[in-house]
Specification:
147 residues, Winged helix-turn-helix transcriptional regulator, mainly alpha, two-stranded antiparallel sheet, single chain, Arc Repressor Mutant, subunit A, transcription regulation, DNA-binding
Length: 147
């Protein structure tokens, strides 16, 4: 594959990310008056990532370290997360959801599911299968290049 073809792949990935953000990620409802949209995103990122640290969270959400610290403190004060020191390296802190945090994210996911089911309603069964297969392929290939 030529360099130009690889750049085209990269542009397609970036374009996909924008539409995915708009049509899927931005549809996550904020189902708690005490949570800002940013705090909700932080909770979802923690929920979907098995082992997350504040520095990884900062990178994933493209926010500053002080913003990350503030968000984590607010979520800790609300009893949605706990911070756990690494057993092997006490300098590393892992972020985990509490039962309360998991429940609030699951409620949000449930509401988002209902919204997405409505959106997907315009697709016929063949298109839904194609979409599902495409996401399976994308996931598989990204796992391969991430390994």
């Amino acid at each position: 594959m030529s360099e130009d073809e690889k750049k085209k792949v990269i542009r397609n990935i970036a374009g996909f990310y924008s539409i995915f953000q708009k049509e899927v990620l931005d549809t996550f409802p904020e189902n708690s008056s005490e949570l800002t949209p940013l705090l909700s995103k932080v909770l979802r990122e923690i929920y979907y990532t098995n082992d997350i640290t504040p520095s990884l969270l900062t990178k994933r959400l493209a926010i500053t370290v002080p913003n990350t610290s503030r968000c984590l403190q607010q979520l800790s004060d609300l009893a949605y997360i706990i911070k756990v020191k690494d057993d092997n390296d006490r300098r590393i802190t892992h972020i985990r959801l509490t039962k309360k945090g998991i429940e609030v994210v699951k409620r949000s996911i449930s509401l988002m599911d209902k919204q997405m089911i409505d959106k997907l309603g315009i697709l016929d069964m063949e298109e839904l299968v194609r979409l599902s297969d495409a996401f399976s392929t994308i996931k598989e290939l990204f796992e391969k290049i991430g390994a």
